[in-house]
């Protein structure tokens, strides 16, 4: 039981099918991840990215590869697979973990690495002028609902104490509008 506490690999089973005492690479990765108490989702993700990395280089052992191979794989993800920057970063973290923590191999600089583009951030909230422009385009019931929604938001900002009452009144007006549109009133 001491191998669990000391985070060493479990003793090998003397079986004719096993050729060496050293665990396979992915078993080593799994063992180190568990010793560091990473989440199970991280374990699955890292193992998947390491498998993809090895398969990309025709099952060549990572010990025999260097920074150029890593750059080629990550650039392939960005250019050919068109992955998001966060996806490429996750793959990079998995590979760095493999080399730094499992293989104990120091990595240098990544030359010629093509990074995936980060998406352009779009504004989440309209300005007051943009809101006015949208409301000017609405007619009839849609204009009324837009005005109610706008006024509701402004009142909530001004007076937090009446929040529940106003929310209830606004919800009631929406239900009434739905009933009028369907023809129940």
Compact summary:
With 185 residues, the protein is mainly α.
Total DSSP helices: 8
Strand content: under 5%
Straight-line N-to-C gap? 74 Å
Say how many strands there are. Answer: 0
Low-confidence stretches: 1-5, 11-18, 155-165
Strand-and-helix sequence, N→C?
HHHHHHHH
The coarse overall form would be elongated
Helix content: 55-70%
Mean pLDDT: 77
Major β-sheet annotation: none
Structural class: mainly alpha
**Computed CA radius of gyration, to the nearest angstrom:** 29 Å
Give an overview of the whole structure.
With 185 residues, the protein is mainly α. It contains eight helices and no strands. Helix 3 (40-56) packs across helix 5 (85-102). The radius of gyration is 29 Å and the shape is elongated. Residues 1-5, 11-18 and 155-165 have low confidence and may be disordered.
Question: Which helices and strands appear, and what pairs or packs with what?
Answer:
Layout: H1 2-5, H2 25-35, H3 40-56, H4 67-79, H5 85-102, H6 128-137, H7 140-158, H8 163-182
Features:
185 residues; 8 helices; 61% helix; elongated; disordered N terminus
